[in-house]
Specification:
Structural class: alpha+beta
Oligomer: single chain
Strand content: 25-35%
Bound molecules: zinc ion
Distance between the termini: 101 Å
Number of strands: 7
């Protein structure tokens, strides 16, 4: 049962996709829910504007990150850290910095969090590790499903650190003990 004509086709069609780049409009692809026959037809004005809105929303998801990448292209180390500070200041709702240490050089470095979101959706966050002295940044992506694990791990670390004195305090106490020695 494969009708080649959609004329007088009495089954129900469901939209399955579209083709076209928008310049010459869009072609909507419908599938018959009963016999799987395909039907192609020009998009209505409402459908076309819906597709354009989807495209705009998708671009908007990545807009801040792409602009950040473009603006910081070729930068690394201290220069990139400084540029990231500027982005965090001008895009406080999208860009945040966390200070960390880069292991080989013990120099303060940044984790730069840049969200991918628009007015309707939150997709996730690119995190860049920007070492001050150890070369190029690296990056990874956090989906919302990763947040809980990360939050739990940070809480675990925080609890361990709070339960014992820090290395700085231990060193200070040792120095004081030496000084107090008769
Ligand atoms: Zn059908």
């Amino acid at each position: 049962m494969t009708p080649t004509s959609i004329v007088d086709h009495e089954h129900t069609f469901r939209r399955s996709g579209y083709t076209g780049d928008g310049a010459e409009g869009f072609t909507i692809i419908d599938w018959c829910t009963v016999c799987r026959a395909e039907r192609r037809r020009p998009a209505t004005e409402e459908e076309a504007s819906g597709i354009r809105q989807e495209w705009a929303d998708r671009d908007e998801l990545h807009a801040v990150f792409h602009a950040f990448c473009k603006a910081t292209d070729g930068l690394s180390g201290f220069d990139l850290m400084e540029a990231a500070e500027g982005w965090a200041a001008t895009h406080p709702d999208r860009v945040r910095l966390v200070t960390v240490d880069d292991s080989p050089h013990h120099s303060s470095s940044y984790l730069v969090f840049v969200t991918h979101e628009n007015a309707k959706e939150f997709m996730g966050t690119t995190v860049l590790f920007v070492p001050q002295l150890s070369g190029n940044p690296t990056e990874f992506f956090l989906y919302p499903s990763h947040h809980q694990q990360l939050a739990e791990t940070l809480a675990w670390l925080e609890a361990r650190a709070k339960a014992k004195p820090g290395m700085f305090e231990v060193a200070m106490a040792a120095a004081q003990a030496r000084k107090d020695r008769p």
